[in-house]
Every structure is written in C-alpha cells, then in structure tokens.
Give the backbone structure.
Amino acid sequence: MTTMRAIVLDAPGPPSALKLRDVPKPEPKAGWVLLRVEAFGLNRSELHTRLGLADADVTFPRVLGIEATGVIEAAPGTDLPVGSKAVAMVGGMGRSFDGGYAEYTLVPATSVIPVDTELDWARLGALPEVLQTAWGSLTIGIGLTEGQTLLVRGGTSSVGMMAALLAKRRGATVISTTRHATRADGLQALGVDHVVVDDGDIAAAVRAIVPDGVDGALELVGAPTLRDTLRACRVGGTACFTGMLSNQWIVERFYPIEFIPTGVRLTAYGGGASDLPSEVLAEVATAIHTGELDWPVEVYDLEDTARAHDDMEHNRVAAKQVVLTRRSNR
C-alpha cells in the first residue's frame, strides 16, 4: 500500500476544514518510527491549531494530531521492537511534521513508548497524551506526595479526570471544579472527594474545605482563572499552569509580586514522552483493563473527526475523545 487515509487541514478554519483524504503513506527513515495507527486521542492543542491560535512552528497543509496509538511497522536505526504495540506523542507531531490523524504516522523514536497490554484500542488510544500531561503535572510540576490535597481547576477535562485518578492512587484528597453542577456526580464516581461549581471565583469555597489552602493546584482553565487558583493554595503550596481550556494563556500586565500570593509557588508543565515512564503507562493500562480504574471515553470513526472537533470546541463531551482509524477496531 502506497497511500493511506488521513485528516488534512489546509488552513485554520471551522471543523469542516478538516478533510478526509488519500495521501502518500510515509516512508521509514533512520531514527524514526513508522506507526500503524489504530487510534488517536483528541487534544485542545489540535483545536488551537485548527483555530489558528498555534505557534509559528505550524505549517500547512498539515495532518494534525499530537498523539497516536498503534503497532510499530518499521523502526530503522532504533532498538524498538517491530510488531509491538506502542504509543507516540508530541515532539513536533501535528505541528512541524504530520501527526496522528491518519492510518500511519512517522515520528521520531524519542516520541515512542512501547507497551505490552491487552487494553482495547479505544481506551489505550485515549491514554498517551492525557496520562503524560497529568503524570508530569503532578510529579514534575507540583511534586504531589501521598496524603496531600490537590485542587484540579477544570476537573471534567480529560487531563483533569486523569489527574484526579492518579492523585487518588497516591492517597491525595482531591477537589475538582466544574462549571456545570450536573457533572458533579461523574467526578465523584471517579473518586473526587469534593466538587466545587466554578463561577470564576472559587478560592473561598476551596478554603472552606481546606482552611489553610491546598498543597497543590493544577490549572487547566488558563490565564483567566490563574490568579484565583493561586489564592486557593497554602503558603508553600504549588500551582502548576498546564492547560488552557479557555483558549487564553497570556496573563496581561503580569506583576509577580502583586499577582502571586506571598510564599505560593507558580510552575508550569509542558513536557513530552520522556516524562512518562513506560511502567506507569503499563500500570495504568492494566488497571483500566482489569476494571480497577474506570476511564471514560467517547469513540468516533475517522470519518467523524470533524464532528469530534466540533464536540470538543463546544465542550459537549465529559470523557476523553478518541478516534478509531479502522471500523474493525470497534
């Protein structure tokens, strides 16, 4: 086969700008991995690219997708095992070179993590980027330890839900926010201890639960809520800026002494595959496969990628969105 199906974006635009086309299948090259894609997750980063909000390193036309899950078909010049299941993420995927919205993708070996799991493609495909982001935010960004308290600002996002699951496995007390009270039950089903309905000013409500403030806070909404999130942290606590659900990531007229409460730490996280240990990926995949963890997904076919983007843009889905590239995977 010399061609494949892929979702191509010629220029920024509405969901309908995402076009399903036959394009040349990538050719293997040294140091890169040809992955037969079985599933890929959708991410806000790809929404930003489609809306024209991405950095200048994005060129068009482009196959979007900062992650992909599938089988290694070729890996010349590497020790990665051909035929094994693997995930790939970031490292320029879907931005400076074509990404995961396709039946095949060619990615640097440094972006690939092999995984031995029986987890189905849909739920495995919904893991790589969200798990890497949540894990990196909690460990590198916040340094959360067992028994501490965590605020997840943007709790019904896929990263927010994964962060809550990981934090609970570490014995943390988790407070998650949602703008819609109707989604509180879903968060509690994940094990969240307290749900706060987010009206843009939740620091007082958080301190009513934890009077001295939380040990760690994961900011997933973005610049508009960051100041309030910092005020929910205790002295010596850490707020990590990771997500931009608001599509706003620039803090205007930022004066640190006035903006950051005394003694509160502000960090950020935007890492890659090297931050996700393979054993963590395998452990979480196994926990989902055995039913120890409930990881909700919303599944689409490749032909429905534009509809999936529209759902993402309008926040219709309280689950990780994942696209299967082949109907036989269902």
Q: What stands out?
A: Residues 87 and 129 are 9 Å apart (CA to CA). Residues 3-127+295-329 form a domain with the Quinone Oxidoreductase; Chain A, domain 1 fold (CATH 3.90.180.10). The longest strand covers residues 32-41. The mean pLDDT is 95.
